[in-house]
Structure formats: structure tokens, C-alpha cells
Design goal:
The structure is a single chain. By secondary structure, the protein is an alpha/beta fold. It contains five helices and five strands, in the order βαβαβαβαβα.
């Protein structure tokens, strides 16, 4: 059992990762945070750190966030995953719902990240 909640932030944008990290650290200073810049790296980080929560971008080079989230969901159904994306097309949101993922619209703001944290803790 994890005593310190761990969040994995997956985004190819270093700036987005930094913003999400800063806001989550302010909201939940006790959480451990790890990062990945791609879907492939996310799969490695999940096995290494076994996070409780994942913030996942969709549009990344190589494996998409939806594919990475689906793979994580199969091996670790207990992990709560939020798709955090500027790709707000209905098809992306529908696919997220099919995979039982939270859907958070970018831009990364204090309000959007507060919403994501609330989803993780519901």
C-alpha cells in the first residue's frame, strides 16, 4: 500500500509538465511526482513507480496518450488516469470515456488542475 500518493505527469511539453507539477505541488504538497515525456516513457515509469494517478496528454510523438492510457488501464486498472489535453474533439472525449478516463481540457490552469485533482480524489 502506498502511503504517499504518487502522480505521473505525461506530456511532451516540458512547460506543461512544469505547470502541472507546480500547481499540484501547491495543492497537494505531500504528493510525489514523476514525469514522462512520451507514451513509451510513461509505460516504463508506471512499472518503476506504480503511481496512484496519471495526468496524460493525448497528442505526443510516437504512442498517443490514449494508447498509453489504454495499456496502463489493462495492466493497472486501479490507477486513476486523467486525459489532460487541448484536443477537445468529441471523438477524443468519447474514447476517454470508453477507457474510463477522466477528461480535463487544457490549457493548464489552476482551475483545470484543481478539477483533475478533485477527480482523482472522488
Amino acid at each position: 500500500m502506498t502511503t504517499t500518493p504518487t502522480l505521473l505527469i505525461v506530456d511532451d511539453s516540458r512547460m506543461s509538465r512544469m505547470l502541472i507539477r507546480a500547481i499540484v505541488t501547491q495543492l497537494r504538497p505531500g504528493w510525489a511526482i514523476v514525469e514522462a515525456a512520451s507514451g513509451e516513457e510513461a509505460l516504463t515509469q508506471v512499472e518503476a513507480h506504480q503511481p496512484d494517478f496519471v495526468s496524460m496528454d493525448v497528442n505526443m510523438p510516437g504512442m498517443s496518450g490514449l494508447e498509453a492510457a489504454g495499456r496502463i488501464r489493462i495492466r493497472h486498472p486501479e490507477i486513476r488516469i486523467a486525459i489532460c489535453t487541448a484536443n477537445i474533439q468529441a471523438s477524443t472525449e468519447q474514447e476517454s470515456r470508453k477507457l474510463n478516463l477522466y477528461f480535463i481540457k487544457k490549457p493548464v490552469t489552476e482551475a483545470s488542475i484543481t478539477q483533475m485533482v478533485a477527480c482523482f480524489e472522488e
